[in-house]
Amino acid sequence: MALDKILVTRSSLPEMEEYVEEIKELWENHWLTNMGVKHNQLKDMLIKYLRVSHLEMMSNGHMALEMALQAMKLDGEVITSPFTFASTTHAIVRNGLKPVFCDIERDRYTMDPEKIEALITEKTCAILPVHVYGNVCDVEAIQKIADKHGLKVIYDAAHAFGETYKGKGIGTYGDVSMFSFHATKVFNTIEGGAVCFKDAGLERPLYELKNFGIHNAEEVRAIGANAKMNEFCAAMGICNLRHLAEEISKRKMVYEKYMSELSTVKGIKLNPVQEDLVSNYAYFPIVVEDEFGCDRDVVWQKLAENDIIARKYFYPLVNEYECYRKMHNSADTPIAKDISMRVLTLPMYADLDMHTVERICAVIKGI
Ligand code: T4K
Fold first, then answer.
1. What is the pLDDT of residues 162-194, one digit of tens each?
2. Closest residue by Cα to residue 15 from 246, 193, 348, 347
3. Under the phi-then-psi rule, with left for phi > 0, alpha for psi from -120 to 50, and beta for the rest, what region is 217?
4. Rounded Cα distance, 131 and 133, in Å
5. N- to C-terminal Cα distance for the chain?
6. Rounded to an integer, what distance in angstroms lies between the CA atom of residue 348 and that of residue 359?
7. Distances (CA, A) of 91 to 44, 81, 87, 308, 362
8. Nearest partner of 7 among 289, 296, 303, 257, judged by Cα
9. Where does residue 48 rank: exposed (0-12), middle (13-18), buried (19+ CB within 10 A)?
10. Which residue owns the Cα nearest ligand 1 atom 20?
């Protein structure tokens, strides 16, 4: 991709000198992975930052979700959203579980709690909703349903790092939450992720599962994977976490600029921050409504002609993927289907300058 293009996001990086300083120690101790000093330091920092009781770091968000589902020893059907990245559903299926797709709410793009109960069968073991774009699911309604039916709740919080809802860290809702620290996320460790959980009993299984299920030098108790975060990634996380508050406040300025530029454009639906949410401004989605006069793909094309590469997160829906469409029908999730045809996420990152935001909005207004 040419560097002069404006891409949907751009990784945050610390000053190079800061990172070099942070990794110097690794040349002294030659300990590069397998839960070293940086890994443990970042873990402690994250527990405080996210205001959670338990957390295990992983090599990426996807493995965090896979390991969490395995550690919970779930069996049967999992109610989830098709309006997400491939990872969410793949983690379910790769654990031998069956995804059951629930439609989303039109305004916040997260699982519609009113549609969950109709999907519950005697095989349902869990609900796995997604905090899409950093919009928080209706956590209270979902918990009520889970409690009533004895189901676990696992949140895909890949987009929601650092958010608080009603004064509580977002990772404290449900039984488990997964965060992604991928290069494209608000907080990155290059590749990385974490799982936060309430049940202290999951700590040891998660620690062992991410290290091949090794219990001790002579005993392997479970069929684990290799999902350890290495020391270079953890060091990047330590540096990036120091600057995160500033990064999020810059994102907020970008968000406010977009809102003021686009709020008067008829047919462009914006995504206001929910009440009681301290947002991380992860993404800037717009929904192109009929009133705009042309469809989402035209908007995407016009932006691309101007070297602005917006992305259709999330199109197609997961239940339309080649690997799932024989078993699932996107007509069963009509709102998710409709939004996936209309949504566009505009460039959003801390260093996006106001002049570029104006230029992006001018292209949209010009259509
Ligand atoms: N659940 C949800 C809801 C998720 O959105 C994701 C990941 C996961 C689970 C899984 O978490 P991880 O296992 O990834 O930790 C990107 C990311 O690769 C993916 O992490 C993310 N969601 C997804 C929404 O977006 P692509 O295929 O769109 O990435 P790509 O390579 O096209 O990059 C998008 C833009 O980001 C580029 O145009 C420029 C920028 N970029 C990219 C990279 C790789 C950078 O600035 N630096 C970089 O190093 O999936």
1. 999 999 999 999 999 999 999 999 999 999 999
2. 246
3. alpha
4. 7
5. 25
6. 13
7. 26, 13, 6, 32, 40
8. 303
9. exposed
10. 182
Give residue 102's identity as a one-letter amino acid code. C
Q: Which alpha helices (H) appear in the chain, and where do they start and end?
A: 16-29, 37-50, 61-71, 86-93, 139-149, 203-209, 231-242, 244-262, 296-305, 334-342, 354-366
251: tokens are 């994102």
Per-residue pLDDT of 311-342, as tens digits, reads: 999 999 999 999 999 999 999 999 999 999 99
Residues having CB closer than 6 A to ligand 1 are 7-11, 60-62, 84-85, 87-88, 130, 156, 158-159, 180, 182-184, 193, 313
> Is 130:83 a contact under the CB 8 Å cutoff?
yes
Cβ-contact 159, 134 below 8 angstroms: yes
pTM (two decimals): 0.97
Polymer length of the chain: 367
Q: What is the CA(151)–ligand 1 centre distance, in A?
A: 30
